[in-house]
Amino acid sequence: MTRLSLFPALMAESYREVTPQWLKARGFAAVIFDIDNTLVPHGQEATPEVTAYFSALHEAGIRTFLISNNSEERVKPFAEAVSSGFVCKADKPSRKRFRTAMAQMGSSSGDTLAVGDQLFTDVLGANRSGLTSLLVQPVEPHDPPGVAWKRFFEKILLFFVNKSEKQLKSPEE
Ligand SMILES: [Mg+2]
Question: Which end of the chain is more exposed for a tag (fewer CB within 10 A), N or C?
């Protein structure tokens, strides 16, 4: 189902809440991640915490993929560090790369989660592709130029979202 919606299906403070246990309890087999400000501050390399997190996902049988609008130079080393397939210069919110990611992971829109920090790229792209979107708080409070205006409109839109309905609940809840 294609939904032209800027509203995330789910919200969390951080990718850390998206645990292997939670994913399995919700029936997700694969996760597509944005990189900048979702996993690390803009432009930063993968931290030991992030690489350990991806290892834990893989050990639990969860497949992962990175979709970034950033350059190959930025994305490729990060993807190698977390042992994930990737698409760079993805033109999110284009649906094309979300399809590529699911094809490469052998997953479908029904069992794939997309995690990102921006409504106008990550969430819109995931919603248009029919998969479940999860918005996380940006890792860094200060954005590079060009993102500030989007954050302004995001704040307005998120004012209308009932966040308590969308927060992740641990599997036992
Ligand atoms: Mg981002």
Answer: C
Partner residues linked to 115 by β-bridges: 33, 134
Number of Cβ within 10 Å of residue 135's Cβ equals 27
Q: Is the pTM of this model over 0.85?
A: yes
In a domain, residue 1? The reply is no
In the structure encoding, which two tokens stand for residue 133, read together? 């979107």
How far apart are the CA of 63 and the centre of ligand 1, in A? 20
Q: Residue 127: which CATH number?
A: 3.40.50.1000
Walk along the chain (173 residues) and give the pLDDT tens digit of each residue: 455 788 999 999 999 999 999 999 999 999 999 999 999 999 999 999 999 999 999 999 999 999 999 999 999 999 999 999 999 999 999 999 999 999 999 999 999 999 999 999 999 999 999 999 999 999 987 766 777 788 888 888 888 887 888 888 766 65
Radius of gyration of the chain (CA): 15
Q: Ligand 1 center to residue 118 CA distance, Å?
A: 6
Domain total in the chain: 1
